[in-house]
Structures are given as structure tokens and as C-alpha cells.
Amino acid sequence: MKPSRPLGVWLITIYIGISVIFNLVAIVGTNLGMIPLDNTVNAYVKLTVLDQGMIAILLFLPVKGIALFRLKKYAPGLFLLAFMVDASFLIFSRQAMRTALPLGGETALFTSPVIGFLVVLYVWILRLKGILQSR
After folding, report:
1. Domain count, the chain
2. For the segment 67-120, what is each residue's pLDDT rounded down to a tens digit?
3. Cα–Cα distance between 103 and 35 in angstroms, integer?
4. 72, part of any domain
5. For residue 72, what are the β-bridge partners?
6. How many angstroms separate the Cα of 4 from the Cα of each of 1, 78, 132?
């Protein structure tokens, strides 16, 4: 019998799902000019290859939500990876981070290092309690 999902798993998964939608709308909208950017946000257009790569990684990392929802044992590693990538993005590209995703979204969870750390800690605790499974 499979264990039931804790409420925290549902909340994190729903948040990540909604964030993915906002991220896609923000990126497509800004790239196609559907969301007008004022002069202070025009730095979005000047993102470096490194910035674009980190954004791509951050957009790929919502798989962590699927892994958590399926209660997979590797989910904590994905959450930790997302936290580290976002922390490095914040450290090396503060301006790019503020302008890359004007509508917020997935990165909003890890914009606050405290909240990001607490989520990583929660997922690791789930693993230690044996709630996350290998299969």
C-alpha cells in the first residue's frame, strides 16, 4: 500500500505547477513583446549566455515537483540542486534575476533563501522519515 501524501507535498506541488505556468507566460510574453517592458526592465534583453542558461536550468527544475508528488527518493537532491542554482543566480546575476521573469513564478519560491532552505529541509525530512520511496 502506498503512503498518502502529506499536505506539504500537495502545497509545494501545486505551487510549483502554478509557477511553471506563470514562468512560461512571462518568458513567452516578454520575448514576443506581449508584455511591454519599461526602461528599468529592459535589462532582460541584455542577459548573458550564462544568465539564459541558468534560466533554462531553473525552468527545467520543476521536475522536482513531479518527483516530490510521486514521493521519489531523489526529490531532495533535485530541490537542493534548484536551491543551489538559484542561490548562485542571485549571487552572480542579481539584476538579471529581477528582470528575467517579470511575472514571478517558480523562482519566487527560492528568491527568499530562508523559504528555499526550509523547503529543502522539509523534503529531506520526508526522505529521512521514509515517506519518499525508491520506486
Report:
1. 1
2. 999 999 999 999 998 888 877 777 766 555 555 555 454 455 445 677 788 889
3. 10
4. yes
5. 133
6. 9, 21, 11
